[in-house]
Amino acid sequence: MRFLLRCLPRSHDFSSFRRTRVYNQCKDRNYNVNYNPTCRRFLQSSASKTNVFKSPRPPVELPVISLSNYMFSRFSAFGNKKALVDDATGTVYTYSQLEDLSRKVGSFLYRKGLRKNDVICYYGTNNAEFCLLLLGCASVGVVLTMANPAYTSGELERHMEHSGAKTLVTVAHLVPKAREAEIGDIIVIGNADGCQPFSDLLADDGKYFPTDITIDPHEDVVILPYSSGTTGLPKGVMLSHYNVVSNMIQLQQSIRTTNDDTNFAVLPFFHIYGIVILLCGTLQSGGTLAITPGFEPEGFLKTIREQKVTQLHLVPPLLLFLTHHPLVDKFDFSRIRTIICGAAPLGEAITNEFMDKRNKIVRQGYGLTEASPLLCADYESITAGSVGPLVANTDAKFVDPQTGKSLGRNETGELFVRGPQNMKGYIHNEKATKEMIDEDGWLCTGDIGHIGDNDCVVITDRLKELIKYKGQQVAPAELEDLLHKHPAVEDVAVIGMPDDRAGELPRAYVVLKPAVSLHAHDIMQYVEQNVSDYKHLRGGVEFVKEIPKSPSGKILRRVLKDQLKSSQL
User: What band does 228 get if pLDDT is binned at 50, 70 and 90?
Assistant: First the structure.
């Protein structure tokens, strides 16, 4: 695969990327949909047009404007108010500084030779300068892609080659990895020998800022995040200026931030949640964003207290920390107005336990990188276990994966969505794009769920992660939610263990709470008492110290499956 990635072109014409129809691939409506994902998409889009669910929110007007111009138009209203506070360095940027400094970054990049549709890569932890890089790139039409700071040098090299990035921006402690990847053009936030400091960008005289660049918000890509790769190799997601700006406006209507709010950016900026929901979402509303390079229990709580945080955006592992860790028992939550959890499923059990124990409401949001990312958000009376209703200007349908039939309320199927936030496609991967988005603009989320009578969406699992036991479907998330209710369980993951006779057997990996002793039989018996026979843990129970998860909180089931496979060899 590394060889194949090296063969990809390094330059792109993002605006010429078009989705193509798949009629000629699926003329036989009786084709086995289990073995042809492109045909399955066609069957679904050709199914009954009824049972399309629309957002209960009133439609909002969506401007056709570049991301940088949209953000700059908002900043002037907030003057010298604090915009960004870097908890690690003490650096503070006010709203009155942001546009000027971002344009200096854009001018420097243009002086350096980067042009519209060129790609630059950020490889680092959270810091305030990332915002200036993002808006500086957007202002001159340069595309920003983000690499996970946990990447090895080999993974970083592949990311750079696949995205076509010409320049790398990183932080000082990651420079050695960048050099191992043989990247020659490195800009460093901080200082490192042989690298150009980011401070040079902020000191640019601005003379090279171009005045003749025309950005088409519908067609031109602004950010190129990579999907998490939990079900395969990461794919570059092309998000246009219009995609991102639309989703920010949809966000503000659903989860309102005011200029009196302080958000806390502990979620990573290389992830779409950190960029759009936290960074851009806070700044469009005049709030203050406190930034930390990573999670550390005492530092996390200290920053919330000292920066007077009023809104918390979390992923399930952080909510588990706030629910169970003894450090939190004496923590004062009174200043926190809103808590939102997203990026991975959060079961009803953990939701209720947190709210009962901490006396705070937690709201859920749902989305995916390919949707910029927000699709659903709880915004009024919450429904525990649901991700709330669709955001404005967004449609959804739930489809039977086997027949392509469009389903009604309270019927479980694969979720398809359509709205202005849907991506342009995957870079260098037209086949995957056609499998993801059909000719009518419906984007396949790959998630299984339903919509209730109250218009709230419930996500139960990933289609590819469903366990098939003797033809019966077992949702790992359902068993995980059940096991989270067990008083001895701290965390849990469920996978399917291959079995020659049954297909797959549900198997649980369990993290016990401190100073608790339990036998695997106790866990298995608990499950047997609460679910149907075919959902029993016939694959066994293994006690582990931690559950492998992505930085966004998704359970890395493929890691557990690989470990299981290795142990059986």
Answer: low
pLDDT value of residue 437: 95
CB under 8 Å, gap of 24 or more: what pairs does 465-469 form? 465/231, 465/495, 465/557, 467/494, 467/495, 467/496, 467/504, 467/505, 467/506, 468/496, 468/503, 468/504, 469/496, 469/502, 469/503, 469/504, 469/505, 469/506, 469/534, 469/535, 469/538
Q: Which residue has the tokens 């330059």?
A: 11
**What single-letter amino acid sits at 275?**
I
- What is the sign, positive or negative, of the torsion defined by CA atoms of 307, 309, 315, 320? positive
What distance, in Å, lies between the first and last C-alpha atoms of the chain?
Answer: 25
Q: Which region among 21-30, 260-269, 504-513 has the lowest average model confidence (pLDDT)?
A: 21-30
Give the strand pairing for 237-240 and 186-189.
Answer: unpaired
Query: In what order do the strands lie in the sheet containing 196-197?
Result: 196-197, 186-189, 165-171, 119-123, 143-147, 221-224, 237-240, 425-426
Q: Which helix (H) or strand (E) holds 202?
A: helix 199-202
Entry pTM: 0.82
Identify whether the C-beta of residue 190 lies closer than 8 Å to the C-beta of residue 110: no
Contact yes or no for 445/366 (Cβ under 8 A):
no
The tokens for 442 are 């419906």
Q: What is the DSSP string of 263-325?
A: EEE-S-TTSHIIIIIIIIHHHTTT-EEEE-SS--HHHHHHHHHHTT--EEEE-HHHHHHHHH-
Nearest to 541 by CA among 568, 505, 501: 505
Ranking 80-94, 106-120, 450-464 by mean pLDDT, the lowest is 450-464
Confidence band, pLDDT 50/70/90 cuts, at residue 233: low
In DSSP terms, 223 is beta-bridged to 144, 239
Name the one residue in this structure whose structure tokens are 């995205």.
163
CATH of 466-568, one of 3.30.360.10, 3.40.50.150, 3.30.300.30, 3.30.70.420: 3.30.300.30
What is the phi/psi pair of residue 99, to 5°?
Answer: -65, -45
DSSP 442: P
Nearest CA to 241 among 338, 152, 389, 140? 140
- Model confidence pLDDT, tens digit, residues 304-352: 999 999 999 998 889 989 998 999 998 988 899 999 998 777 778 888 8
Strand order from edge to edge, sheet including 82-86: 92-94, 82-86, 288-291, 262-265, 311-314, 338-341, 363-367, 374-377
The encoded tokens of residue 290 equal: 């406190």
Q: What is the 3-state secondary structure (H, E, C) of 27-44?
A: CCCCCCHHHCHHHHHHHH
Q: Which of 71, 427, 124, 68 is nearest to 270 (CA)?
A: 124
Contact between 455 and 56 (Cβ < 8 Å):
yes
Which residues touch 4 (CB under 8 Å, ≥6 apart)? none
